[in-house]
Amino acid sequence: MTTFALPGLPRTVLRLHRTALIVWGTFVAAVIGWLVWLNTVTADRGEREMAYCEHHETCNILTALNYSERTGYIGTLVCYSFLAVAAWAGAALIGRELESGTAKLAWTQGVTPVRWLTAKLALPALLLTLGGTALVLAFRWGWSAHRDLMGDDWTFADVFVARGPATVAYGLCALAVGTLTALLIRRTLPALGISLAAMWLLNFVLERHRGSFWPTLTRTSATRFDLQNGLWQLTKGHGADGYYVTYHPQSHFWPMHLVETGIVLAVAALATLIAFRLLPRRTV
Amino acid sequence: MTALAAPAALRAPSPRLSRWLLRLHRPALYVFTGLVLVLAAALLWLWGPLTDAAAEGWRQWNACGDHPRCSYDQDAILRYKKVYDVTTLAMFLLPFLVAAWAGGALTGGELENGTAELTWTQGVTPARWLAAKLALPAALVAVGTGLLVLLHHLMWSAGEGRIDTSKSWYDTLTFAVNGPGLVGLALAGLVVGALAGLVVRRALAALGVALAAMAALWFATLSALPYLWPAVTTTGDLDSGFAVDGLHVDYGLVTSTGRHIPVPVCNGRCEDVYTKLDAVGIYNDYHPRSHFWPLHLMEAGLLLALAALLTLLAFRLLTRRTATARHREEAAV
Fold it and tell me: Transmembrane ranges (chain A) (predicted)?
């Protein structure tokens, strides 16, 4: 398969996990292909429908709705792909090898545990970064290409993650957390379940507190008012100076997104550090 | 070959075998029981306090009218919606979890590491082993999901008409968990997982195959659902809409001879196209509210029949494989 010479260890890792490699490659290619199809064929038909609707009383907008629904699905898939990574890293990458003893076998064949774990983490991390970056770039393009056909906005939980490096950060964090879980538990299926649950929990907590990752703006008025679309409203109420609303404008997307990316990467680094610290105790 | 499987499979597993099975899969038993209890508690919470609070919030909102300074309990409405959505989704995922476990741990794991073969040498025939593996989990899954379905239906009914944003009976996820169809899907999940484990004989691969098969089964169920019971047809003139309060099956145009034809693509002059087609009205095929139970019972029945069929297949596969292995050993001796 490989005509260029890869060193032995990375080649072994690739060969051992080729199913995962194929699944990941197919997923990335399929999502990008789907986005291209939606933004050429489907979006064209949707735009024609909308143009017709502007001049007629009765019309249908089924294609436009399809476009918006499917772009929404893609955002969900891209954002939550880290859950699959967590399950795989916990179960197949590390857990199974520790349970079945093939890891110990490898360590007797001149591969030190540290090099073994480094190869196990570095190669998937590289492929997750490349694939994740491609997914994010494709989604950013597809999501903004036909805003008039879409009903969502930048504050949607999955859209928020899928439009930037947080997607890659979550993938890397899932890899590290899955590895750590597997090293702690050393059994395939429990590692799968716990790693999945841990990553879901991390995302759940960050999603809930996303609004406080950057200072909000406040608007006050003597009379009742509504914010225009595209602003993320957090609280509203009635104080001494009249009505107030705290919110994030769209310009806060990047600061908030990068703070979340930083937190997720910090968790990933911490989990990796603990995993390497834990490794000597697993080799005796 | 057919005579081999049936008698042994039909005999109830011995109490000792069941006890041993419970010991082996104790973590799974705890996780499943815990999940059912947590979800049941959430459903009770929704049914009582959350529904009442959200209904009161909607009553306040509707009493507001156009009054500019009006306060209503928006938090209660949002909390109800959030807890409802999460609980409903979690219930919907239960059959998939059962399938993943059955493939990864119940059969696939034991065949991968060889404890299944070990058991078969200890006076437990493969057919009895499989019968014990399926019977007890099936009972637990049926009781657990049955209880949750009952609570969900009671909870959902309590909110209907009182909470303006409560889900309709035909909302995809709500329908899926609101009746016996979910029990059928969970039992089918158990058998699909067990069969995947027997066929693939590797824990993780079986887990993946079981999940993929369940996804396919769910999409098949979803597409077949509208056709599981005869739909009601209503007609109207060309100006009436295609919107119905129920599960839509089909819609289109009616010609002057009464023929039903699909809606043409007419991103131009629809009136002219309709005239050319001789269309004088529209029709809608759909399921009204009263079709909830027939649809659910049909869905549950079909899924249970599929589960029974796959169980039979699993037994035949297992006995055939172990019989071949025995013959080979005898020949070698």
Answer: 21-40, 72-94, 121-143, 163-184, 189-206, 258-279
A239-284 confidence digits (pLDDT tens): 777 888 999 999 999 999 999 999 999 999 999 999 999 998 887 6
Residue of A nearest to B103 (CA): A189
Q: Is residue A110 part of a domain?
A: yes
CB A52 within 8 A of CB B267: yes
- Does residue B264 share a domain with residue B177? no
- B273 and B218 fall within a common domain: no
Structural domain count, chain B: 2
Q: Report the complex ipTM.
A: 0.75
What was the pLDDT predicted at B35?
96
How far B167 CA lies from chain A's nearest CA (Å)?
A: 19
Cα dihedral sign, A139-A141-A142-A148: positive
As given in the structure block, the two tokens for residue B113 are 């590491």
Which residue would you say has higher pLDDT here, A238 or A20? A20
Of A59, A188, A193, the CB nearest to B203: A188
Which chain A residues have a beta carbon less than 8 Å from that of B31? Answer: 193
Q: Do residues B68 and B144 share a domain?
A: yes
Q: Are residues B254 and B134 in the same domain?
A: no
**Separation between Cα atoms, residue B302 and residue B293, nearest integer Å:** 14
Rounded to the nearest 5 percent, the helix, strand and coil shares of chain B are 70, 10, 20
Between CA B127 and CA B311 the distance in angstroms is 11
Q: Chain A within 8 Å of B104 (Cβ-Cβ)?
A: yes
Q: What is the pLDDT of residues A117-146, one digit of tens each?
A: 999 999 999 999 999 999 999 999 999 999
Residues B92 and B102 in one domain: yes
Q: Does A254 map to a domain?
A: no
| Residue A243 located in a structural domain | no
| Residues B179, B199 within the same domain | yes
Share of chain A above pLDDT 90, in %: 65
User: The dihedral of CA A230, A234, A238, A242: what is its sign?
Assistant: negative
Backbone torsions φ then ψ of A235, nearest 5 degrees: -130, 155
pLDDT of B303 over the 50 cut: yes
The 10s digit of each residue's pLDDT in B200-259 is 999 999 999 999 999 999 999 999 999 999 999 999 888 777 888 899 999 889 998 989
A281 at the B interface (CB within 8 A)?
no
Contacts A59 to B, Cβ<8 Å: 267, 270
Q: Does B203 touch chain A (CB under 8 A)?
A: yes
User: What is the nearest CA distance from A214 to chain B, expressed in angstroms?
Assistant: 23
CA distance B119 to chain A (A): 19
Q: Is the pTM value of this prediction over 0.95?
A: no
Range of the domain at A273: 8-209+265-282
Which A residues in the span 232-261 are in contact with B, Cβ-Cβ below 8 Å? none
Domain-embedded: residue A251: no
Residue B141 CA to residue B189 CA, distance in Å, equals 10
Considering its fold, how many domains does chain A have in total? Answer: 1
Full domain range(s) for residue B136? 2-227+290-332
Section A55-79 average pLDDT: 87
Please list every residue in chain A whose beta carbon sits closer than 8 Å to the beta carbon of residue B86.
none
Residue A273 at interface with chain B, using a CB cutoff of 8 Å? no
B240 and B182 co-located in one domain:
no
pLDDT tens string B157-175: 999 888 888 899 999 999 9
Regarding whether B125 and B90 lie in a shared domain, the answer is yes
Q: What is the Cα–Cα distance from A143 to A159, expressed in whole angstroms?
A: 9
